[in-house]
Amino acid sequence: MRSSNRQYLVSVDHLRAFAAVLVLLYHGTYMMLTEIDRNREGWLYADNPLGALVAEGHTAVALFMVLSGFIFTIGTLGKDIHYGRFIGNRVLRIFPLYLVLIIMGTGAYRGDADLLSVVQSLVGLGNLPGSLHLGNVSHMWWAIAVELQFYLLFPLLSRILTRRGPTALVQLMAAIAVIRGLVWLSGGGKIAANSFLYYSLAGRIDQFLLGMLAAWLFVHHRDRFQSPAKVLIAATLALVTIWAFNRSHAYQEGRTVRLIWIDVEGFVWALLVLTYVATVTSTCLASRALAKVGEMSFSLYLLHFLVITVFLARNRWIEPTGNPVWDAFFTTVLGVLPVSLAIAAVTFHGIERPFLRWRRPYLDPDKPRIAAQADGTRALPDAAPAEPAPRPRTAERSVGTADR
């Protein structure tokens, strides 16, 4: 069982590494491009799916959201969650590095910080007006706020999934979609798509829920999704879907299709997570090395933007091809990425990891596992998954590094 748990954790870390690196490539390519070719304006529209993946690399945030819902649910399905300990563990996971950045940022941009903005950012409302905006230091903090808001809801959502089954979450998503559509249409075209759907739990909640549904399928029907061919199909579907989104110009132009894209994007990533984690069990040296990047993904996510701005401030880029887009991409891969990984290793081991050891189990080990069937009916105790969820300590590790 312990070996199986380790294999599961490694495959999850692979996906976290992929998401963090994709965000870095996305930001690095666009920001480098604006300096290498200052006459260029507008969005990048790719002629192939891999190019579109980088051009729409913001989609990695959706993958992170799906992964959060997936990993938390894998570790808790069918168990009661001690709410206080769960939130306490999330604080230990997120806040050490976050607080260091707040201290550094307020010191550097003292005139842009006040007590109310600091408090607002600390209580999980950093994606709303009035929160801290500390230059490039705080550029990635909005996602922390969305994650923290989901953490407050997750124990309740987990209980609903356990007691009533996946149908209840599907119904919840449908209700949220109806309300969201009404709000969008009532705005008469004046609602900003990114503020409403991208930077807010109002849009992101669907992706968390899709991750939870993928976890339910993993626990109950893992064998049905276990196949390299199915991983390839899921990956191809994700690439083609993102390419189509890129060609539609929907992100930059804020079209109504963004209302549907939330769920389409979440679905393709949830399918990839489900098939990949069900299939990939390698623990070879290369696999473990990639997993280490996934472990450091929170540091990589929060700090890569600063690394990019340092490169730009010192005019550190290369132009080997003469094509501004390719030069921006190569500078990011060959320069920004290795420096960001090195810095992330330092901050993970020096700031994040010591606090991770303080976390406590938040699952009730004394109550029997009771999980609902697909139709919402209750199963008998201990009848749900053929392969039990990780033991509390292992589950702590799995959910503890899920955030970025």
Characterization of the model:
The protein is mainly alpha-helical. It has one domain (2-400). The protein is 70% helix and 0% strand. It has helices spanning 2-36, 49-55, 59-76, 83-108, 115-122, 142-164, 166-186, 193-198, 201-221, 228-247, 250-253, 258-279, 285-295, 297-313, 324-356, 392-400. Helix 1 (2-36) packs across helix 13, helix 4 packs antiparallel against helix 6 (142-164) and helix 6 crosses helix 9 (201-221). The radius of gyration is 21 Å and the shape is globular. It starts with a helix and ends with a helix.
Characteristics:
single chain, 404 residues, mainly alpha, 70% helix, globular, disordered C terminus
Sum up the overall morphology in one term: globular
User: What is the number of domains?
Assistant: 1
Report the span from N to C terminus: 26 Å
Unreliable parts = 1-5, 375-404
The averaged pLDDT comes out at 88
Annotation, overall tally of beta strands: 0
Number of helices: 16
Order of helices and strands: HHHHHHHHHHHHHHHH
Beta-strand content estimate: under 5%
Helix content: 55-70%
Radius of gyration from the CA trace?
Answer: 21 Å
Structural class: mainly alpha
Most strands sheet: none
